[in-house]
Amino acid sequence: MVLGIILAIIVVLVIAAIMLYNNLVKMRNMVDNAWAQIDVQLQRRCDLIPNLVETVKGYAAHESGTLEKVIAARSAVTNATTPEAKMEADNALSGTLKSLFAVSEAYPELKANANFQQLQSQLADTEDKISYMRQSFNDTVMKYNTAIQTFPAVLFAGMFGFFKERSSFDAQAGAEVAPKVTF
């Protein structure tokens, strides 16, 4: 009788551990998937930028400093190897794109160019998707981090290899300030 109760308790604990492990795996995979979705949109933006830069070059050739910064920031995003490095590079790219669009305001013929308008629209759409995916990623990271820190999962998380918290996608300091362009 006592042996049966002990055996039942062990079975329940094993089942609970399996369920906790499976839940943590599922949450870790959700975080990885959320990051992959951001990465897809970042790549889409990086693919659009060379066309946008070439369009702007034709109208604002003397704005080469701004264009070079955009190209360098795009290259940094493309060359980043870790999610954290990509997050940092992406924040820099967002700032340079704001400067590029601020420059475009000074050139009415550029703003009227259909190719520029189409690229700007596609880039704005992509920026909206990136923003949404960042929010989704941060929500998923929060759920994962909460899951590995709360009881009873915290007892097993380290043992199962889930002891590392994930970083959220934070806005760059000063991102709330519009770029200042002077001529």
Automatic annotation (TrEMBL):
Claim: DNA damage is one of the keywords in the record: no
Transmembrane segments: 6-25
Topology versus the membrane: Single-pass membrane protein
InterPro entries: LemA-like_dom_sf, MamQ_LemA
Matching SUPFAM superfamilies: LemA-like (SSF140478)
UniProtKB keywords: Membrane, Transmembrane, Transmembrane helix
Protein name according to UniProt: LemA family protein
